[in-house]
Amino acid sequence: MKTVLVLGASGGVGGEVARQMVDAGWTVKALKRGMAQASEQRGGMLWLNGDALNAADVAHAAQGCSVIVHAVNPPGYRNWGKLVLPMVDNTIAAARRTGALVVLPGTVYNYGPDAFPSVTEQSPQHPATRKGAIRVQMEQRLREYTQQGGRVLVVRAGDFFGPQVGNSWFAQGLLKPGQPVASVSNPGDAGVGHQWAYLPDVARTMLALIDRRNELEPFAAFHMGGHWDADGTAMLTAIQRVVVRHGGKEPAIRALPWWLLKIASPFVATLRELLEMRYLWCQPVRMDNARLVATLGYEPHTPLDEAVEATLQGLGCLPHAPLAALAHA
């Protein structure tokens, strides 16, 4: 029964989870739109032509799977309100047929200021944004599924970064992929802490919990500690150190021009979505990983400089580093 369907395997967290599951001996299926043929073996995975918005495609791909990883999102944050909930409904329907565990990469978007600054799995979910409200609805539908006999695992983490990070603050807000790092943008207010999550660590955490899936309650939610940047400077200075170690000039650190994003946001969907998340850069928000550590005994954790170096290499920002395609789910 070590067969898994990964929805969003061409994206950041989905791709990392899929690759690690291949390495761990799982048979991995992946769904992708617009393939020239019905199926194709690539990267140790079976790629199937299909769309996460098509219930029949998802149900067909999920046949024989004991786990479905729901890591699919609309590309470029576009059309969240219309696309996200139908996709999770299709995953639930497929899991109901096969009895598969549904695994959801979660975020801090579910929570609002009443839960800050330290957020646990039991904190109230009163989101401050439209995208956060949709996230809460996703989890509510998954929770209702568990009340009907299903099983769900949710792993919530901070802002993603990694070699193939896709849509992220790191790749879209801090620097420009495919170019040497001349400067780094700082989105945060002075002295405000921020939580980051290195994608390979997130995937390792998910795999460790999946291995213990029979020991978990029907709706199991865990928070990762990831990399806590206590004053908002640790990530920026780590980027500086890595660039200098690779022979580059130390990048300047400049405040992100939020005013410019506001002016351009009516014309660029991605900027509108980034702007909506500004509140997370104005106050410290930290997820408590005590429950995860109590369950696993540890949390996978790559040292910050090592994680930043791999990320910059993957994004083509270091000398002789090929640009990894910024694939989207």
From TrEMBL:
NAD-dependent epimerase/dehydratase domain residues: 4-218
Superkingdom, natural source: Bacteria
MF GO annotations: aldehyde dehydrogenase (NAD+) activity
Pfam family for this entry, one: Epimerase
Gene3D superfamilies (alphabetical): NAD(P)-binding Rossmann-like Domain
Gene Ontology CC entries for this record: cytoplasm
Name under which the protein is recorded: NAD(P)H-binding protein
Organism from which the protein derives: Pseudoduganella ginsengisoli
